[in-house]
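Open question from group meeting: does this chain pack into something compact, or does most of it stay loose? Before anyone orders reagents, we agreed to write out a predicted structure and look at it together. Recording both the input and the output here so the notebook holds the full record.
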Amino acid sequence: MFELLYAKLLDEKTKKRSERIIINIAIVSFVLHLSLIALNDLNFLGSTISGDLFTNPISAIYTPFSFILVYEVYLLIYYLPKSMTIYIGKQYEIIMLIVIRRLYKDLSNISLVGNWLESTENLQFIYDIIATIVLFLLIHLFYKMNKFRVRKLLKLTETRPELIRFVKFKKALAVLLVPTFIVIALFNLFDWATHITELQSGLKKGLDINSVFFDDFFTVLILVDVLLVLFSFAHTDRFNKVIRNSGFVISTILVKLSFSVTGLQNVVLIVSAVGFGVVILWIHKLFEKNKLPKNY
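Structure tokens returned:
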């Protein structure tokens, strides 16, 4: 059953079809968001909607980026059975895109009046700009250290029974993640819409839109990563691989923690999470180069 569902939900054709659909939705959502801002500005909606997302045209870029993030989540699930490295790399790409998406929101809040560094919004923009550059470099290093192995893994047909079982487990896990994330996304969308309504009526204050869906998303990923570490013991007991996979779990936990804080703490946790993963992979590669001969 899982093999059949995997072929339907996560094959190459579905991936390409999903890419086309998401691109079209992103373009349409961008136009609709701009139209909503224009109508709100002209008071054509009956009552004016407050908030940067509904008043500043620059913030409209936030919406198509949200759909691009949805596609990145799909790619993360798609690559889970194929390559652990790409799967972890996709986690890092997602958190970087969240920071970039936040940059567009930061742009709409920048104040050019008075001392630049006295504004909290201006400081957040500086933090996010620096974080984007550092994250881009770290992700580049992460993939560079594994580029040849990733190409080999994507073309390799595994024959060892224990690895075949592990791949089947990852496929079943990937299939289960598709409906799980759909349910989480719908729940968060409903919760966000309710929160927005209560904000407009003054019943609630404060809403960190960057944590919508992705706070729960990374919670699920932590559980998935722990399961992968536990099941990886079935086909390998090599110290460096165990530590590498365990290090990736810690990295995901740090990303999850970043949603509970704001400002500089948030950026430091995100960069530390990705940096930790890169360093763990680098040390793992050193172990691979110095591994003992088979007849030792």
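Observations to bring back to the group:
Residues 2-289 form one domain.
Residues 202-206 have pLDDT under 50 and may be disordered.
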